[in-house]
Amino acid sequence: MKARILGTGSYAPVHVMSNDDIAKLVDTNDDWIEEHTGIRQRYLSSEGTVSMATQAAKKALDDSGIALDEIDMILVATVTPDYSCPNTACQIQAELGMKEVPCIDLSAACTGFVFAMNTANAYITSGMYKTILVVGAETLSKIVDWADRATCILFGDGAGAIVMQASEQGIIATDMGSDGSKGMVLYAGALPLINPIVERTDRTEKLSMDGSEVFKFAVRRIPETIKATLEKVDKTEAEVDYFILHQANRRIIEAAARRLDLPIEKFPMNIDKCGNLAAASVPILLDELNRQGRIKRGQLLMISAFGAGLGWGSALLEW
Question: Which domains are seen in the chain, by residue range?
Fold first, then answer.
């Protein structure tokens, strides 16, 4: 028994922020941003993570043909929830008017959706649950330092979702890992530690990144996790139809394609329109490809992501 993706959905906020808009905030310009990242614009939310996630979930449910009462669990990947508690998954459940099923949030930043999808796969293949709604949603604009030129050019807001169900086809192999010793090369603080015995803290909620270290990590780790996944089922890179990677930076994706000795055409991208969306990145791209009819039944897809943690994860699946 495998876990198959039955439907996809995504949601982008109404407000578009162009590179020219960014240039009004920090010393940069459209040409520099596009050349160094591949990004031309990003979306900013005025509504929050739950609202975007719910809209994406509704579209995924419609695409799958699955009724609400068939969903056995909700898994949500996010590092930007609207509340510390209740979690985002519970709030989506309430917004959808669903029955009382387990609702769990996973926090793994840009790798979060792949971790959540692989977790759903484990629940389904074990026989514990049959049908699971998996969502990746982020409001990264609220943790971005809009005065930091190195990071404010990169990130946006949005949500994507899939419906997974037990099937004879679907996820074939997975690979996941983390290296917490390098975690602080990409971080965002939480609520500051202030209590009766601590008056203040120097931590900040704003996102901070050592871009050079993240780049080196990503271009090394992406080929490694892809190869590790393929080796588990004696598949080769040439047999994969599309490599659907986390959309962090066009240069990272191009470097990964070169290291794998594969044509860039096998690596679809939408980073120019969306920017880096962390846990929402992969499901939004997957939904775009699905609705454009670019992925066909029976094709092999490699889904792979990397990010803060530092973490990485992949899944090979038959569409």
Answer: 2-168 (3.40.47.10), 173-318 (3.40.47.10)
